[in-house]
UniProtKB/TrEMBL annotation:
GO terms for molecular function: ATP binding; tryptophan-tRNA ligase activity. Its EC number is 6.1.1.2. Signal peptide: none annotated. The lineage of its organism: Bacteria, Pseudomonadati, Myxococcota, Polyangia, Nannocystales. One of its GO terms (cellular component) is cytoplasm. It is an enzyme of class 6 (ligase). This is Tryptophan--tRNA ligase. It holds the Pfam family tRNA-synt_1b. Belongs to the class-I aminoacyl-tRNA synthetase family. GO terms for biological process: tryptophanyl-tRNA aminoacylation.
Amino acid sequence: MSERSEPSTTAPKARLLTGDRPTGPLHLGHLLGSLQSRVAMQDSHECFLIVADLHTLTTRPERERIAELPRNVRAIVLDLLSVGIDPSKSTIYLQSGVPAVYDLAILLQMLIPASHLRSLASIAQMAKIAGVDDERMSLGLLGYPVLQAADILMARAQLIPVGGDNLAHVEIAREVAQLFNEMYADVFPLPEGQASRVPMLPGIGPDGPAASKMSKSAGNTINLGDPAEVVAQKLRTLSGSRLRAFIDALFDDPAQAEAMSAEHRAGQLSDAAAHEQLIQATEALLAPLRERRAAFEADDGLIEEILVDGTIRAREVAYATLQQVREAMGLEPLWKGLIDVAERRALARKKPY
Ligand code: ATP
Ligand code: MG
């Protein structure tokens, strides 16, 4: 047998970053669009999962909406644990608890043309769902992708698994990283977005502008924590092309999904029969989650402990990156230069005559 060196066990894993806005509990779109791949990559990657409360402020800055954050933040972490995210492998952290990210966002803002942001369909859709017209769009909502770039780049993340609505934002983060590296110094790995097999699960309920995407803010969700009878009732509201989109999303064997969709389109599979098959497939996914959720929910203080631990870890990473960025841009040398002179002067002043 030829001699072969063992693969190093200490080689750093590539970093992955993704996350959710604490605007409500996670839904089936998250599970199929993002959560399943997060769980699958926990061992191969160093995962950072952001609970993006600052991103929530972009459409919900009111006091009473901020008062909803503690409950929504808990709900997200509970959902993450119930799908199988393991906090000993993944860093789950609270975005607003990492102030170095805002510093970084300000610096990155200088490198992103505002016209890029104005042309993004994803921001227009978020504004529409939130009932914000063009006139009232805040700088924060327009700049959402800049803060998202700061989240990604602070972790020096390479892989960003997201739904279809967020792919354009990862592209912006990549462009900024590239520009930064060219202008100043090679600080950032170039992040890459990864769309899942289900980039945009539609919502349940009546047709309307928000129907094409299941969204927490649109009230058209099947939540991961919904009881079985609620899930069944919601699935029974589906018809037409949205029903077929659910078939494609839930049956991951493409041949089976294709055959069912074709039968439905041809009128050989009734809505009612399709609903029953969807209910079975969804239950197979959600039933184990409900059991795990109940166990984590009963463990008092667990969620808070996980978030605090994760946020402290994220802070360390963020400050280290910010330091490199300030160094590369010349801001740290500027500050150090001032301190050097001031220190020398202070020393001179104390010199005995
Ligand atoms: P909100 O309505 O508050 O924006 P949301 O339901 O869009 O909530 P986010 O927290 O914005 O959820 O998104 C978290 C991640 O899940 C993102 O990567 C997003 O692209 C993905 N995602 C959200 N909705 C869907 C969906 N319906 N299908 C697939 N992926 C989705
Ligand atoms: Mg969203």
